[in-house]
Amino acid sequence: MNIVIVVAAIIAVLFAMTYVTRRRFGVLGLGLCAGYLISEMWTGQVTPFVRGAGFDLFVPPLSSVVAACLVLLPAVLLLVNGPTYHSKTKRLIGAAIFALLATSFLLGPLGDALKLDSTGKTIYRILVDNKTIIITAGIGYALYDVITLRTPKKER
Questions:
Q1: How far is the C-alpha of 8 from the C-alpha of 50, rounded, in Å?
Q2: Which of 45, 38, 111 is nearest to 69 (CA)?
Q3: Interatomic CA distance for residues 102 and 100, integer angstroms
Q4: DSSP string, the chain
Q5: Phi-psi bin for 54: left (phi > 0), alpha (psi -120 to 50), beta?
Q6: Whether residue 56 has pLDDT greater than 80
Q7: How far is CA 33 from the centre of its chain?
Q8: Which of 32, 33, 88, 106 is least surrounded by Cβ atoms within 10 Å, i.e. has the fewest?
Q9: Please, which residues bridge with residue 146 across strands?
Q10: pLDDT for 64-80, tens place per residue?
Q11: Domain spans, the chain
């Protein structure tokens, strides 16, 4: 399958989920960071457990699916409850950055799961080459968003 279609579909789904739930990017971005760390540490141990439970895939490899699920799980759980945006502009910006950051974290599992043609390899290489910058900027903006978070004061 063409990497462009897969990446575009992932970005669209993640953007839509975040925009519709109105969740703030800061909390979700830090959730993605946690998921990425969990995925890096636990994919090797969780994959045999999932395979032993009766789930087995050949295309895409089960380890890629498990890694992707572990990356997204904390952020998806945070989509259920958390601080929200009230401005449509901030919602758009937050959802776009969330989708881009999540896709950057998923480049490893995607690269392992997809067979790339020449165009796909070129696009994948561009994304991988800029992954560090995207992730650093995304984490920086997530921290800024959390720092500027104001909890509403209760009226007496």
A1: 28
A2: 38
A3: 6
A4: --HHHHHHHHHHHHHHHHHHHTB-HHHHHHHHHHHHHHHHHHHHHHHHHHHHTT---TTTTHHHHHHHHHHHHHHHHHHHSS-B--SHHHHHHHHHHHHHHHHHHTHHHHHHH----HHHHHHHHHHHHTHHHHHHHHHHHHHHHHHT--PPPPP-
A5: left
A6: no
A7: 9
A8: 88
A9: none
A10: 888 888 999 999 999 88
A11: 3-147
Q: Residues 105-140: pLDDT tens digits? A: 988 887 766 777 777 778 778 888 999 999 999 999
pTM higher than 0.90? no
| Amino acid at residue number 104 | S
The one-letter amino acid code at 51 reads R
Give the tokens for residue 143.
């921290």
Residue type for 73, please?
L
Sign of CA dihedral 59, 62, 63, 65: positive
Place of tokens 């480049």: 107
Q: What is the pLDDT of residue 42?
A: 87
